[in-house]
Amino acid sequence: MDQEDAKLQELLRGSRATPPLPPRFQEYVWRRIGDAEAPARPAPWLDALVNWVLRPRLAFASVAVLMLVGILLGTRGGAQAARHDAQARYIASVAPGSLR
Amino acid sequence: MGRSLVILLGALALGAAVFAGTYFASQRACEMCLATPADELGWLRAEFHLGDAEMARVRQLHEGYLPKCAAMCGQIAVKNRELDSALASGTNVTAEAQAKLAEIAALRAQCQAQMLQHFVEVSQAMPPGQGRRYLAEMIKLTLGSHGEIEQSMSDHAGHEHRH
């Protein structure tokens, strides 16, 4: 019985065609495994940048500058919008749409 | 890489939010402070640096002009309605419709002349330099658009003809 099984196994192995492996296949597989297992390393420049940005003094200064610029530009934009509205109101009073 | 990037993007988003928040808040506050809904002459005072005496004269001219302007605009509105009914009767431009168009054009020209006369009078009530600036700006803002439209149409027509 065992002999017949062994023959059968041999016949089955012989019936399957096994294509040849590409050159340096094992090396390639081990390199892939190594890459997958290695921990993801952050880019050093990005870490340095984040550390620099998150320093309290710089962070507060940045927020203050952004707020100041926002207030200045917002005030200027608001003044322009108010001026434009007032001008449009005057023009509408002296020159109705049918005259323009 | 991922954590640092998230922190950096978060900081950028926070900065943008701070900037946008202060920008829109101060814009709104400034608009509310400067808005003068009651007085349509407020712009003249601020823009042309007019004193009380000049403002009083300008206000007098303005209040004298408004009823005349309203009367002329009323006449134009009546003629426009007549033109609408003349055009509604058919698909051709009838002699009646043409006559209405001519009447409207004449009324509009009369009204524009009256408006220009008002601008001249108001400009004369201002200091000379400001008066000249006012007159130039009013002509540009009221009649200037006609010139722009005609110019654009003539450019367009020239472009079409060249093809």
Which descriptors apply to this entry?
heterodimer; A: 100 residues; mainly alpha; 4 helices; B: 163 residues; Four Helix Bundle (Hemerythrin (Met), subunit A); 2 domains; 6 helices
Structure summary:
The complex is a heterodimer of chains A (100) and B (163). Chain A has 100 residues and is an all-alpha fold.
Estimated helix fraction of chain A = over 70%
| H and E order of chain B | HHHHHH
The largest inter-chain interface, given as chain pair and residues per side, is:
A-B, 41 and 54 residues
Name the overall outline of chain B: flat
Structural class based on helices, strands and sheet pairing of chain A: mainly alpha
Write the layout of secondary structure elements.
The complex is a heterodimer of chains A (100) and B (163).
Chain A: H1 2-15, H2 25-37, H3 44-53, H4 56-94
Chain B: H1 2-34, H2 42-47, H3 52-88, H4 95-124, H5 128-142, H6 144-162
Task: Walk me through this protein's architecture.
The complex is a heterodimer of chains A (100) and B (163). Chain A is mainly alpha-helical and 100 residues long. Chain A has a domain at 56-99. In chain A, 76% of the residues lie in helices and 0% in strands. Chain A has 4 helices and no strands. Chain A has helices at residues 2-15, 25-37, 44-53, 56-94. The mean pLDDT of chain A is 83. Chain B has helices at residues 2-34, 42-47, 52-88, 95-124, 128-142, 144-162. The mean pLDDT of chain B is 85. The radius of gyration of chain B is 26 Å and the shape is flat. Chain B has 2 domains: 1-35; 42-162, Four Helix Bundle (Hemerythrin (Met), subunit A), CATH 1.20.120.1490. Chain B has 6 helices and no strands. In chain B, helix 3 runs antiparallel to helix 4 (95-124) and helix 4 (95-124) packs antiparallel against helix 5 (128-142). The N and C termini of chain B lie far apart (59 Å).
